[in-house]
Amino acid sequence: MPSWTLHQGDALTLLPTLDTLADAVIVDPPYNSGGLQAAQRRGQSARGKYVSGDANHLLPDFGGDRRDQRGYTYWLSSMLAASLAAARPGASALVFTDWAQLPATSDALQAGGWVWRGIIPWRKTIARPTRDGFKRECEYVLWGSHGEPTRHAPSIYLPGWLEGSQPRGKGRVHITQKPVAVMRQLVRIAPEGGTVLDWCAGSGTTGVAALAEGRRFVGIEASGEYAAAARQRLMAAVDKEPAAA
């Protein structure tokens, strides 16, 4: 049966202590976006940026989302370099970003030592319109590899774009929660039975997807509240798995 481990604390401190090398690093870092000017990005909390004023939930805020462009690029480069050291040769890194931080994220991916392999658009089927312009209904996943990508046996063929919207209602337990269906497609970049690492684990969606796809999961989450939510979801995901034959 697939297994999981979740650490609570600072990822840059914890990554060098992990005793299992990752077959894939899949991470949704704080975008440090949401404002056209640096002062706007630094002045708003994550909840203020990503939650509409008429929202009917009180999901916890999270930190690390008030860096300016240079600070964000330096921080993400450091994190991705530490991720490379925690990954096997051939492992893939999949890093979420929005349109505003796409150039900075591609710089950070390569500065961290990963070979940039491409971009996978993620279209959110429910998105607000933009007056007199184009709807911002896409975010992006940047793909990099630790040297030459792992050759799967048998070979796999993954989609070049993703589609799905954030959970709503009781299914939403994190401000920027990703759809499990989208994450299930991404975790397949790790070999079956391999280990998926997510050092911004949030409410554990990457882990839930990894377990559902027969992968192991190692997560790191800074927020105590979200780490607790992730543990609950991961335990529930294991309970849903059929017993080993």
Automatic annotation (TrEMBL):
Lineage of the organism: Bacteria, Bacillati, Actinomycetota, Actinomycetes, Kitasatosporales
Tree of life domain: Bacteria
Family label: Belongs to the N(4)/N(6)-methyltransferase family.
Name of the protein in its database record: Methyltransferase
A Pfam family reported for this protein in Swiss-Prot or TrEMBL: N6_N4_Mtase
Chain ranges of the DNA methylase N-4/N-6 domain: 23-230
InterPro entries: DNA_methylase_N4/N6, DNA_methylase_N6_adenine_CS, RM_Methyltransferase, SAM-dependent_MTases_sf
Gene3D superfamilies: Vaccinia Virus protein VP39 (3.40.50.150)
Protein's UniProt keywords contain Methyltransferase: yes
Keywords: Methyltransferase, Transferase
Annotated organism of origin: Streptomyces tremellae
Enzyme class name: transferase
Enzyme Commission no: 2.1.1.-
SUPFAM superfamilies listed in its UniProt record: S-adenosyl-L-methionine-dependent methyltransferases
